[in-house]
Amino acid sequence: MENDHRDGSEAPDSGLRRACDQCRLRKIRCNKELPCSNCKIANRSCSSTGVGQKPKEIRQRVLISSQYERKIDHFESRLGGIERMLYELTASIKNNNTNSHSTVGAEPLSFHSTPAYRPSPCVEDGDVDEDDHEEPDPAFEGTSSMTAQTAFASEFIENAVTQTPLRDLSPSMQSALSSLKQMVSIQNRKRTYESRFQHAKAVPPGGFRELPMPPLQVVISLLREIKDQPPLTFTLICAFIAIEDFTLHCRKVYFATEDFSLACLITVNVGLYYLFQEKSMQASDEKKALLLEYHYQCRDNIETALSNIPLLFPARMENIEALLLGATYAIETSKFSLAWQLNTSASMMCQTLGYHRLPDNANDKTNDAKSALFWFAYMLDKGLALRFGRSSVIQDYDVTMPKAMGRHMQVSDPWKVVLNLWIAHSELQGKAYEQLYSPAALARPLEQRLESARLLVDAMKELVKDTDELSRHVKAVGKADEPVMIYNMNLVLMSDEVSYWGSLCLIYRAIPAQAGSGSSSFNEECIAAARRSTDCHLMCMEMCDKNLFVQCAYLHWTILYVPFIPYLVLFCHVIETSDADDLRRMGDFVGSLQPVCPVSEAIDKLHRVCQVLVNVATLYVEAKAQQQQDQDMTIVNNDFDMYLSQLGFMPQGPAIPQNNALLSPGAVGFDGNGADGPFAGMDLDAHTSQLGNWFSGNRHFMGLLEEDLSQFEPRVWESSSVI
Fold first, then answer.
1. Which of 264, 392, 451, 639 could form a disulfide with 385 if both were Cys (CB 3.0 to 4.6 A apart)?
2. What torsion, rounded to 10 degrees, do the Cα atoms 254, 257, 259, 261 define?
3. C-alpha torsion sign, points 206, 211, 217, 219
4. Which residues contact 182 (CB under 8 A, 6 or more apart)?
5. Which residues cross the membrane (predicted)?
6. Residue 667 burial (CB count, 10 A)
7. Burial class (CB in 10 A: 0-12, 13-18, 19+), 194
């Protein structure tokens, strides 16, 4: 500070004098009095005029205005994006240099507790500890030729987008190729599928009992209402929990004379989450906002509780209930990997407790509840296993429990029939993967796969027939004073038809196409099933066009839960044949998703990706039409083909001749090599490889819905064709 005073750095009006002129010239210490001690001793005049001092520059005041703050935030955001890109690039390089893959089969839960909610755009939500900075191992998705081709795809995309300079292409072609490039890049990205909880909060110091809950009076009113008239939530999604048991759980939480379990907290919040959601869709705007506030409060509690599930969760009935409810919540929020983890643990607990076997005591009152828990775990297990291309946790040869819901369940008889049909459908889903698309199935002779496909087709047709009979029965005996029940039943049966025809489409896909059919990948039955399923979907959306809750629930459980194969079949068929009617169906499907996008992030992602495919298909058809007239369009078509091939949608290999007799029993030779059948002397490896690529491509495509698509922003382009 003394040096600052001596060199005159202080302002004149600061209350402190400068060193006098004589002391400054002689470069001696000045006590800055008037006169100073040096001048008094030397008997000199003492003055301080600033002679010899460097004039002080006027400093400009720095104003941090809102404009500067926005610029700083913009720079921070861009730097965060660069960090993420560098991280992904490093991960990609490591992945390409590593030949080993980490497998995730029926793994137990491995969640950590979430200390706090941190909504930072540069920090992943969820739990952060010392090990979280290390790169997690990638999740296994089944045998996939796309994984093996990752290096080629990356090199191809990096070196050249097209042989035709982009500046020479129309904006629509540029956008289409750019969108395909983004999709391939996202699919080839190393996926960890970690369970992240965006809305999880820190556990209060007093424990879970201190978490904020919806008001008691609101919950009591809701419980009284559902006791008199059970909602759709407890008829289907939560059918394995009786309303009386749910009420008892609510009492434990709201009148906690002692600590309640984590499972009890999950059960209460998931049940209320669904009830507030369902009720909000029927309420006025003013009341709707309040109900949604309670709905989101339950959502935060669910994620907080799920993030604190211990690794060694005891095998108890209430824990199985909580895990299954957590799995349904994960499916509703498009966290299918989390649903797989939760349901895997529930399935293992069911087997640990023997719920999959005939009970020793037939008079045990809990038998129906145990049966319901097991079959819900079974249904989710088969559906999610097919989605991920993995083996099921529950094997059919180990189950002796009758494939039916308990007779004493508090569900009306028509709904029990629906649930039993769901069990039968899930069994066929498991067999479809095991016998047609698993690595062991693809290694079987084609004749054996065709026989399995024929048997599965017959079983699926019986399921469709039973559904039609139930629909006619409901219409015939339905009471006029039960319009809501009849409406809900008709809607559920129509959505089931969408699922059943979708499964038929998947089974038919395993059968080679006929020579000369116009398609090298799909037989006529497969395409017909895809069309029927899509048409039924459009009818479903029309039936519930005034209720976003019903539309949202239908889309989550019918279109997203098990990949909607028909849309991808139609896309591939349009790419191969330029079928205008199927292109229109694709456009109608995408249009049906639009109204629900604002209320569901998962559906919004599906809409964006499907919109890209229908636009690409439209432009691809146009490019093929111009191919003979314009050589540049031939080059563009080649680029389309390469991208679509990397996505698993383009056929790779010639069609295998087939006749209609293949679908009838006894038409195929079963001597082990097909010498007596219609495939003698043919290259059957091409069809097997193509089938595996296509199934992998579909799984990877649906995997996009769990990816961060914030950077996937395809531009909207115009086309001469009207979709």
1. 392
2. -50
3. negative
4. 711, 712, 714
5. 554-575
6. 16
7. middle
